[in-house]
Give the backbone structure.
Amino acid sequence: MADRSPDRELVTSSLIHRLEPLSLRAKVVVEGFLTGLHRSPYHGFSVEFAEHRAYQPGDNLKYLDWKVLARTDRYYIKQFQEETNLRAYILLDGSGSMAFGSGEVTKGGYARSLAAALVYMLLVQRDAVGLTVFDRAVRETRPPRSALIWRDELWAVLENTQFTGETNTGESLHRVAERAGRRGLVILISDLLDDPEAILSGLHHFRHLGHEVIVFQVLDDRELDFAFDREARFEELETGATMPASPWQVRDAYQSEMKAYLDQIKSGCSHHNVRHHLLTTSTPLEEALVSFLIHRGRIG
């Protein structure tokens, strides 16, 4: 599809239009979102003490154990049960199909902003977060860590991600599953425009290992309604192949195929007990964050 637009631009209903850099966008989205909640997700935290760990730059000093400091002259942070239990792995599709956008926001730009917001929200909530960017193979990976300063490293990876090349989502998911550590929360952000059977096999691999899995499928509105109104030459962004078409002549067939494909993805995710959320680039990011927190049981 040849209709492209500037990347890293996000429009939501109430929070953000065009903010740079990505770190500022994530902060505005998350902090505005949390302020607007009637019930804060922080209330869901366990206060049952679990263990100590060495202080890391960026850690909140309110968790510093002052008694241990006075006794040993060493800095240790109190960890609580929820912090030691949750490890989140964010998987971002960096393939060329994510570069498409019929309006102001590309799928890649939307996905990048969602990933950055989730990184910030999880780290503020003292969860450990890791990040993987993939296309045909794993392109970048960072292990889960919980220090708040880790957000800058993950944001830098996201900021520098280019959405290019072909994809092999299923194979990439299997590779990440083989390397993942102890059981945690896997968050996949992708358009899923690939072999659905291979994708579902990769998701099942994570479930077989005991991971909880949430999928945010990001599509452009025109990919759903195919509401193009003039003759066009469509470009396959991963291979460069082009094809001229009259959209109104193929719209019905396209929508039928798209519906069948989405039904297969949704039913497959349900079968494997994977939570699936379909988003478009016009969906406010707040809605994705609400879906995430409801699924995590942080808001009712």
User: Anything to note?
Assistant: The chain has a mean pLDDT of 81. The first helix runs from residue 22 to 36. The two ends are 40 Å apart (CA to CA). The first strand starts at residue 49 and ends at 54.
